[in-house]
Amino acid sequence: MTTATIRPGDRRISPVFVGILAVTAVTGWATWTGFAEQPGLAVFLFVTAAWVVSLCLHEYAHARTALHSGDISVGAKGYLTLNPAKYTHVLLSIVLPVIFVIMGGIGLPGGAVFIERGRIRGRWRHSLISAAGPLTNVLFAAVCTAPFWLDALDGVPRDFRFALAFLALLQVTAAILNFLPVPGLDGYGVIEPWLSYNVRRQLEPLAPFGLLIVFALLWIPSLNAVFFDVIDTILRALGISDFDSYCGFELFRFWQTAEICSVSP
């Protein structure tokens, strides 16, 4: 077994991650019960903490898949602890994604784990390692939207419903962005093992700028409209209305909550 040399401490869940889970649970409870004096603040903390949890799970999925594919170095690097500080850089992996959530309601892909690809044999394994992260976002989105597509919203408080809708929007945007076949993103990592050496060599210099290129393109109004039309179509297929996702975003930005969201349609 390739995992035999992994020390028990390399797998121990980080107290930092446990603390983030606790914040998610407490603020989720406050959102559900209406206990918080400022509901928007509770939604902001709940969604932010849950989003950070999803970022950690995304990177953990990469690392765990790499471990079982042959890269036992991920344990010593701390990738199996779910500690957000271990995933590349706190600024790139946590702070910037949260800022983008606040600014535009877009699930910015977090950093990345450094996989020693030379330890891994087989193109399918390389592709699966890259796909594992965004597939985690897909699973997270399925959980968030379950009450909607299962028609199980009876008894779910309005603010909690809005929060789930917005959190689902973030997961869907993160999954779509991550799956784009652009150098530097997971989607490219899925197809890269199947490309010729010359093509990979030509595209490699673009990897540090891939995400910047994508967001520059999203600033083009027509492309931005197409992107969010796709997001809205997916969310509606999952039972989430435009009103729910819009109010989730507005409630998340509690400092400027829209009055229309104070009354359910």
Automatic annotation (TrEMBL):
Biological process according to GO: proteolysis
Subcellular location, record wording: Cell membrane
Membrane topology: Multi-pass membrane protein
Cofactor(s) it depends on: Zn(2+)
Ranges in a coiled coil: none
Record's keyword terms, sorted: Cell membrane, Hydrolase, Membrane, Metal-binding, Metalloprotease, Protease, Transmembrane, Transmembrane helix, Zinc
GO molecular function: peptidase activity
Statement: the UniProt record of this protein carries the keyword Signal: no
InterPro entries: Metallopeptidase_M50B, Rip2-like
Protein name as annotated: Site-2 protease family protein
Native species: Streptomyces viridiviolaceus
